[in-house]
Design brief:
The protein is an alpha/beta fold. It has helices spanning 3-8, 45-48, 75-86, 103-106, 118-129, and strands spanning 19-22, 61-66, 91-96. The longest helix is centred in the middle third of the chain and has 12 residues, at 75-86. The radius of gyration is 15 Å and the shape is globular.
Length: 132
């Protein structure tokens, strides 16, 4: 979301055709969690949370949320969807049943697709945006 990071990595904003978020921590106050060490010292949620940096020119997003996620609250996806919609960015939010924070990504592996619908959701989103 934050064009600053793309610029620093020499990645043109226009080169990203879509974003797939899986159980993402897009919108929370990290300062009271052990994970606070992953963020710059003294940073605030307004400075680092993706939902605070949505750009109108952002690419389409697929946000996959695990119904049973007890690590990253599903509200993160709801808040991110709201911010994207407010900016006019195409977004799909899908709450996947029966999966948790780990099994939502494990279901990407072909032998573990019985866990949930992650793999077909991701592949469909990519296929829809593939250059032809």
């Amino acid at each position: 979301m934050n064009a600053r990071w793309l610029t620093e990595a020499n990645v043109p904003v226009s080169s990203i055709r879509g974003v797939i978020g899986v159980a993402g921590p897009y919108s929370f106050d990290f300062r009271s969690f052990q994970s606070a060490v992953a963020f710059p010292k003294g940073a605030t949620p307004d400075e680092v949370m993706p939902d605070r940096h949505v750009r109108a020119d952002a690419p389409p997003h697929l946000l996959l949320v695990a119904q049973n996620d007890d690590t990253v609250a599903p509200q993160n996806g709801v808040n991110m969807e709201r911010a994207l919609r407010a900016a006019g960015v195409p977004v799909e939010l899908k709450v996947l049943p029966r999966v948790g924070h780990i099994t939502i990504i494990a279901a990407m592996a072909r032998p573990l697709t019985f866990l949930g619908d992650t793999r077909p959701q991701v592949l469909n989103f990519i296929e829809q945006r593939r250059l032809k």
